[in-house]
Amino acid sequence: MAPGEHPLAAEAHELLTSLPDAHEHVFYSAATPEELRHAHATPGRLTKDRLLALSVPADATAYVCGPAPFMTDMRQALTDAGIDPANIHTELFGTLGAINPGLTDHPARAPHQPPGPPGTGPLVTFARSGIAVPFDTDNNRSVLELADACDVPTRWSCRTGVCHTCVTPRLSGTITYSPDPLEPPADGEILICCARPCTDLVLDM
């Protein structure tokens, strides 16, 4: 990561400086020597050995955010450092790979507006894919069908709210289900396979 790609860097630094006895360690894998000096950063990635060298207190509570392989490595390193696994919290930063059982491989297309005239329903924004599309209440039976029409990468299996493969973080907006899922997802998440927007909707996909 380069300094320009560091999310909320200034805010995090400001908050840390307001805490007593706080220590900040920054690692940049893609930075110039000048950028490293300016940020008081260490070149390279945070690894298990580097984490252990920081002598993290065994009674610490750790919050790890990043791609799945990184979180797995850091969880193991923190456990090796003596931290109780119950005090290690993780959050995926990135998307999971698409899962579309029963479909043959086809050339990937960049997400795009669907063919035909635009819908007249609530605006559905696929935040990671960078597109916003009016829901077509006549032709789209679910948010998943709209995503399919836009070639937005999706995860699904049953399409009836049973398997929860399609569970997706909802950033804002409200939905209704048709059919109702077998079990509702956690707060802040929706099952796109059977969800229809009631208001403008923003999804982390």
Structural class computed from helices and strand pairing: alpha/beta
DSSP helix count?
A: 5
Low-confidence stretches: none
In oligomeric terms, what are we looking at? Answer: single chain
Number of strands: 11
Strand order of the largest sheet: 6-5-11-7-9
Mean model confidence by pLDDT: 87
Distance between the termini: 22 Å
| SSE pattern, N- to C-terminal | HEHEHEHEEEHEEEEE
Largest sheet: 5 strands, mixed
**Shape assignment:** elongated
The amount of beta strand, in percent, is 15-25%
Q: Rg, please?
A: 21 Å
Amount of helix = 10-25%
Identify the notable features of this structure and list them briefly.
alpha/beta; 5 helices; elongated; single chain; 205 residues; 11 strands
Describe it:
It is a single chain. The protein has 205 residues and is an alpha/beta fold. Helices cover 20% and strands 20% of the residues. The chain contains five helices and eleven strands, in the order H-E-H-E-H-E-H-E-E-E-H-E-E-E-E-E. It has a five-stranded mixed β-sheet, with helices on one face. Strands 1-2 form a two-stranded parallel ribbon. A hairpin with a 4-residue loop joins strand 5 and strand 6. It is elongated, with a radius of gyration of 21 Å. The model has no long low-confidence stretch (mean pLDDT 87).
